[in-house]
Design brief:
The chain has twelve helices and 13 strands. With about 350 residues, it is of the alpha/beta class. It has a six-stranded mixed beta sheet, sandwiched between helices. A five-stranded parallel beta sheet has the order 7-10-11-12-13. A two-stranded antiparallel sheet has the order 8-9. Strand 3, helix 4 and strand 4 form a beta-alpha-beta unit.
Length: about 350
């Protein structure tokens, strides 16, 4: 019997379908704790709900785990209802659980426990608790009915976490419209963002940056290439450029190793400069995604973004000069903005070649 089966629900018919990185981190941590783990990515495999239920019933896991975040709320709730009969216990994690675990647990009686926050250090103790005496106190970071919740602190040294269990999914099943080559992989080199933008949810990652070392980042990129061959990596850090010197170290390491990996990252406009972007391009960076939000100075101030329209213009120009494509994020519906303000942001981005 599989001790833990992690499931991503059906869907993913659009142009973007990326590996379920959070589930793969949890899978690696559970496996390191000595448990037998499987992953079913129904979106990547094109499974229907009936096919997914039959697959899970065949595996008959002791514990079935689901991740969840707001855009997939409907699919998560459907998974709870559809798959509960295929397992002994069901757990839910991810931002959805971290934000509203108590309310969801009260409403959905099929769920046995929810993980609040990062799950890697929680999943092993939770599986032991589910397999053992459930009258005892729950592990820290777990919410279960009839038990007092005890919070768990975030992992400070990210290098102590195992690499995601990428061997449990087919990398060639994923796609990303901005990828310049295939296959497509994902990784995250740091967690937590110190900036104060009021629209951002930091429930899981927090506000204190915790970064993988240069050596760990390079080792993970080498592992991706060794497993799947030359390809494309999407970096999920909220801001890859939080530590400029670390970025320099990663880029220089990629160049020195001649690693055949192209990549895209997320960055704030006030962290981009011409010299760094040229180095990033030499190291394989093809696209930088940046939060423009608006070209209205008043709107940026209201959002507590801490950037200016001029910084946006400078960052975009530096990307163009370095030969790096730009993905611009903009917000619609900022309080106080008019349709003309939104159009001005769109026109500005188009004028910069985005």
């Amino acid at each position: 019997m599989t001790d833990l089966l992690l499931v991503r629900p059906p869907g993913g018919r659009g142009p973007t379908l990326l590996p379920p990185l959070g589930l793969l981190y949890v899978a690696a941590a559970a496996r390191d704790a000595g448990y037998r783990v499987g992953v079913v990515d129904a979106a990547a495999e094109g499974l229907t709900w009936d096919e997914l239920r039959r697959r899970c019933a065949q595996v008959s896991p002791a514990v079935l785990g689901l991740g969840g975040y707001a855009p997939l709320l409907t699919e998560t709730l459907e998974s709870i209802q559809t798959l509960r009969g295929t397992c002994d216990s069901m757990v839910v994690g991810g931002p959805l659980a971290s934000f509203g675990a108590a309310a969801l647990l009260d409403e959905y009686r099929a769920v046995d426990a929810m993980i609040v926050g990062e799950a890697e250090t929680t999943i092993g103790p939770l599986l032991a608790w589910l397999h053992g005496d459930r009258s005892s106190a729950t592990p820290r970071g777990v919410i279960a009915r009839g038990h007092e919740y005890r919070p768990r602190t975030r992992t400070r040294e990210l290098d102590t976490l195992p690499m995601p269990a990428r061997d449990l999914v087919d990398t060639h099943a994923y796609r990303y419209p901005l990828a310049t080559c295939k296959p497509v992989s994902t990784l995250i080199t740091g967690r937590g963002c110190p900036h104060r933008c009021i629209f951002c949810d930091k429930t899981v990652g927090g506000s204190t940056p915790r970064l993988h070392s240069v050596g760990r980042v390079l080792a993970e990129m080498e592992e991706i290439v060794a497993r799947s061959g030359p390809g494309y990596a999407v970096l999920f850090d909220d801001d890859f450029l939080i530590d400029r010197q670390r970025v320099v170290g990663v880029c220089e390491g990629l160049i020195e190793r001649r690693l055949p990996l192209q990549w895209k990252c997320e960055a704030r406009v006030d962290g981009l400069d011409a010299e760094l972007l040229r180095l990033m391009r030499r190291a394989g960076c093809t696209t930088v995604a940046m939060g423009v939000e608006s070209v209205s100075a008043d709107s940026l101030m209201w959002l507590q973004k801490g950037t200016t329209p001029e910084q946006v213009r400078t960052a975009m120009g530096a990307c163009r000069d370095a030969g790096i494509d730009i993905l611009a994020y903009a917000l619609v519906g900022i309080p106080g903005e008019t349709p003309a303000d939104v159009a001005a942001t769109v026109d500005f981005c188009r004028g910069q070649g985005v």
